[in-house]
Amino acid sequence: MSTAVDPSRLSINQETVKQWSLPELAEGCAKEGITAVGLWRAQVQEYGVERTARLVRDAGLTVTSLCRGGFFTDIEEAARARALDDNRAAVDEAAALGTDTLVLVSGGLPHGSKDLAGARERIADALAVLGPYAEERGVRLAIEPLHPMFAADRCVVSTLGQALDLAERFPAEQVGVVVDTYHLWWDDQAPAQIARAGRGGRIHAFQLADWVTPLPAGVLLGRGQLGDGSVDFKAFRAVVDGAGYDGPIEVEIFNEAMWARGGAEVLRETAERFRTHA
Amino acid sequence: MSTAVDPSRLSINQETVKQWSLPELAEGCAKEGITAVGLWRAQVQEYGVERTARLVRDAGLTVTSLCRGGFFTDIEEAARARALDDNRAAVDEAAALGTDTLVLVSGGLPHGSKDLAGARERIADALAVLGPYAEERGVRLAIEPLHPMFAADRCVVSTLGQALDLAERFPAEQVGVVVDTYHLWWDDQAPAQIARAGRGGRIHAFQLADWVTPLPAGVLLGRGQLGDGSVDFKAFRAVVDGAGYDGPIEVEIFNEAMWARGGAEVLRETAERFRTHA
To answer: Which fold has domain A7-277?
Structure first.
């Protein structure tokens, strides 16, 4: 449980140092000896997909995941078709960047709807279409259960158990899950579900952020630096490692106070916190 | 599922019309034909426990619950002893008010602690002491699972399943649970857990509030008027009724915009929404 984490498992999700451009991120990681990053579609598209692929390749960086596909819960047919098209594009971008993992934020309740079960079924419908498309391109879809406070407006998949109920309808090479401490730390069922995910070979990403209070308005940007909050990362990692996962560990923190600081300082602090707390 | 709710089941939790004093609440309920209220300790203590008991008795009001006992998770011995004393006082107040239900908000993580399991065990320790004390006075303790977004700072009991795991260590006459739509609406396990609670005779209170977004800073005061948000109250009530519960249904909404309006207007709206949505 108190085994030191292998520092080479650290991957920096680019949102953690959102103040940086992609070239700044590549340069900063090189200086800090960090060899892996998680990327976001909007920033990649802005810089250019091929250009980003070249940048990370030249910098010797591994792309551990691309965020995000998803938003599958619309009822209207045209909106659902658009979502599928957009997700095929996301798969293509992931493949171009050389990452095998596309993170999915599945979508909240459509406007005016109160039907959680129906929304969850529409996610399964989309996965049935996208799973084979992704597998052909060497990309795995990773359902991220989001904290229940996002169930209405972002993601009706609120627990790892729910994410696995969806993922297990498909081959593990097509659909797995994201284990993110920020979303799952409170759940006493998480350890058993992490073991279940490990047995099925479905832990496709492992992400860290700390839980800090009070939450800000809108709650999205309330994540904390590792060690600043309530999450017992060593205990959590012991469970994930114990489930057979030995892949990269992404630090993904959305925090306006961290974005207001210099990127290099935040990156150094994050690497230190990772070694100490993870 | 679409059976109309019996309007006489409505109980108004006084926080819903926090702008009102206790006499205003009693008078307002009489005008609106509402015969039951849920009360809060701070307001009752301010007005006087015996004086409140007399007020509600004279007004013909039933007190369906008293909020709140709890905050059992401190580690330090003196703080735990103080919490037990305070909870014995809360039981005495509940008995004086003639209600059989004391709602418990169990407490979050102590400062600097990351040990959720330990905190949950300390809740059980406190229940072992308080359960018999409450039963002797005709009061049932009702563990309220709070939404997981409150796990760090208010309540480490985040699901109905966890609440029942705790409650079932004790006789149902001593310890049960609160079923509150605001805290449980997102959870696909809630229906099975409500059935479990019903089988054990442990549904000691049923409370309604809607889930609306965006959440305000601190998230505590973000509850919505019935019908304004994501909760399917009729489906939820069908599950609770189906579990054999036929008691009062409390509307408990913390919402600053509602507190800024006239109490009579809010009470009338709430009664209307109850008839339409519950």
So the answer is: TIM Barrel (3.20.20)
What is the per-residue burial (b if ≥16 Cβ within 10 Å, else e) of A235-246?
bbbebbbebebe
Per-residue pLDDT in tens (0 to 9) along chain A, 278 residues: 458 999 999 999 999 999 999 999 999 999 999 999 999 999 999 999 999 999 999 999 999 999 999 999 999 999 999 999 999 999 999 999 999 999 999 999 999 999 999 999 999 999 999 999 999 999 999 999 999 999 999 999 999 999 999 999 999 999 999 999 999 999 999 999 999 999 999 999 999 999 999 999 999 999 999 999 999 999 999 999 999 999 999 999 999 999 999 999 999 999 999 999 99
Q: If you write DSSP's letter for every residue of A33-66 in order, what string do you get?
A: T--EEEEEHHHHHHH-HHHHHHHHHHTT-EEEEE
Instruction: Map out the domains of chain A as residue ranges.
Output: 7-277
Q: Which residues of A touch B217 (CB under 8 A)?
A: 214-217
With 0.90 as the threshold, say if the pTM is over it.
yes
Q: Which chain B residue's Cα is nearest to A165?
A: B188
A240 min Cα distance to partner chain B (Å):
18
CA distances from B66 to A57, B101, B258, B267 (A): 63, 6, 21, 19
Are residues A147 and B149, on separate chains, in Cβ contact within 8 Å? yes
CB contact under 8 A, A215 and B213: no
Mutation pick from B1, B213, B232, B276 vs chain A, by most beta carbons of A within 10 Å, is: B213
A271 CA to chain B: closest CA distance, Å?
21
Residue type, A186: W
